[in-house]
Amino acid sequence: MANTSPAFDQRPARVRTDWGISGALALTSTDARSSLVIVVDVLSFSTTVTVACEQGAGVYPFPYHDPAGAARLARTMRAALAGPRWEDGISISPASLQDLDAERLVIPSPSAAQICHTIANRGALIVAGSLRNAKAVAGLAAAHLDASERHDVVLVPVGERWPDDTLRPALEDYLAVGSIAARLTAMLPTVSISPETEATVTLWKGTKDIVDSVGGTASGRELLDSGFADDVMIATDVDATDVVPVLMDGAFVPLGHRVAAARGRRNVGAGAR
Which GO terms label this protein's molecular function in UniProt (predicted)? Predict the structure, then answer.
């Protein structure tokens, strides 16, 4: 069966889910400008972006296996460059960014960044979703759906890559999609969701210990065995933040921080009055 079948976009459901760049393309094949697309890569792109945005940084996702190109982008944007996880200093490890002192950061991530840029070029609004910000992302998604009957939400678990560059589905990404979808459907009980999305909710609700489950996945075990237990703990800190990274002009910006800052200014002004 060719991938051109209309069934592959999972419509008329307003909340839809599919894997990787191919799934994202299928779900945004029509009217992408009405879509909020939530890109989910728990270990670790989405978590790393979220932690950087928690520190107030803007994050430029770099979509190529090209260290020299990433370095050029960092110089052009006057940004710090996240190195490989095993390097000292700023890296793609979320643990390395908890005290980040940089206004801008370039994060190389061929799979997730490719999805972000490709689907953004179709006109969709892109956000980074993770376990850390599941409730906050669901709240933004609910507001997006409420704003217009034409609006929809697309959840994209990124997965990993096998050595032959084919997609390896990653359980931790499916769990995070389920956590976001479960919160979204609790906020909007009558919203229509695809069976693919409903399956992620069932998985999430049936998971008793998220830390053990994520730590026991192939990706989690790889990190634990390599000495990156902190990255797994940070990634599984469910609803730890209200920051939602939103892709604007090529960079993720921390929506939650902007909202919090605006509220703070209003509160200060009210106190002065």
Answer: 2-phosphosulfolactate phosphatase activity; magnesium ion binding
Whole-model pTM?
Answer: 0.92
8 A C-beta contact, residue 151 and residue 144: yes
pLDDT confidence tier of residue 157, bands split at 50, 70 and 90: very high
Helical pair 45-54 and 110-120, crossing angle rounded to 10 deg: 70
Overall number of domains in the chain: 1
Query: For residue 184, what are the domain limits?
Result: 13-57+114-272
Query: Distance between CA atoms of 130 and 50, rounded to whole angstroms?
Result: 8
In a domain, 99, yes or no: no
Q: State the Cα–Cα distance between residues 273 and 265, nearest whole angstrom.
A: 12
Tell whether 104 is covered by a domain.
no
Q: In CATH, what number is assigned to the domain containing residue 222?
A: 3.90.1560.10
Helix axes 20-27, 110-120, angle to 10 degrees: 10
